[in-house]
Amino acid sequence: MSPVQALIFDFAHVLCSWHPPPNAHVPPQLLRSIMSSDIWHNYERGRHTQAECYAKVAERFPVSAEDMARTLQQARETLQIHEDTLAFLQQVKEESGGGLRVYGMTNTPHPEQNVMQSIRQQCPGLFDHIYISGNVGMRKPELCFYKYVLEDVGLPADATVFVDDRLENVLAAQSQGMNGVVFRDLPELRRQMRNLLEDSGSRGRHFLAANAMKMDSVTNSGETIRDNFAQLLILELMQDRSLVHLEPGERTWNYFIGSPKLTTETFPDDMDTTSIALSTLPMETDLVSSVIDEMATLINEDGVCMTYFDPTRPRIDPVVCVNILTLFAQHNREQEVSRTFDWVLDILLNRAYLAGTRYYQSPDIFLYFLTRLWRTSRGRDSHRQLTRPLTTRMRERIGAAGDAASLAARIISCKALGILNPGDLDTLQGMQCEDGSWPLGPSKVPILRWKEKKKKQRGLRILPAY
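RE: above sequence
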């Protein structure tokens, strides 16, 4: 893809808007029908004079030429220029340091072009040119109009971004290779423009630095959950201790930082967080060995590793098992948890992860941590056993729906396995927020429905399923 060098903007309902009053001489619904007719389209192409257009409309529709003239005059009087959008465009152009051109492209009859010019005068220097249908004899979404504009600006299609409020117009632009944005509102436009014009990786790293040690989990009701688990994942991926805050355990680790929330008053250390911590942070060998010794004793009747350092909470989860296996593999002790590995492999082979697991909703997260195990066990039997089915299952996930965290996990896994996945990367980049972050996604605990009887309200709340 070529770097974006030009923005091409529609005017009506993007940079300006007008709304005939309810008591207009031509009712709004009828006016919409008239402006969708071949008569009006030819007027926009410059094939009719204003008088000819109004006369032809009067012959076909139950309105007079005089009523058309009065109604459109009333519409002109309601014209509103979207100054905030124009100011944003001006800012983007100035920030480009001369590397970005801005054009207008509008379906406007020749007699109405003064309106476009008045908008242009409000922002001197913003528009390099405005292409008006009544002047060039073509209108959107005719392909010839887009081809004409592209040839005139002298840029490859993929170096341009076309913005319009009508999907059919954007689709036509995209069919010619242009980048397309369907305009909804200014905040969404700002976000999409940043994603198209700026490097997503740099923006993401800037967000991390600006929010160092503040990136805690949040419930959908807005309550902050400070946890070691998320912090350890950030640390492992970014290799930057300054980004995170941790509350280490003396030997084993707890999910929560500080007092537990939305669960029991006391909460045991868990093997999931501990496995990530011991496999990510530098630790004394004797300490790690002693923790692994203890983990090896906490198994269920099937020989599968449990989740907590508390046998009174006999919970199991495939992702937790994978993370435990990774720690054991790091220290060449996989054979001690071979039955856990066999179960995880069965889950992979039979796609039992597709609906999520007890603590992890996304199938992509299961495959991400399994890829982490695959990398750690390189050169061993477990690595060879995982390679083919894991590669197959990852290919199956390409293009599947998912939140930002799921897509990121999928992309990282595909890269590790040598699988090309540009489509999901494009999707993830397109989801980036204006500040460089990505939208919040589910935490490692499921979202459960609840009913608060006292307030007689329904809601959603994240509750640990421990």
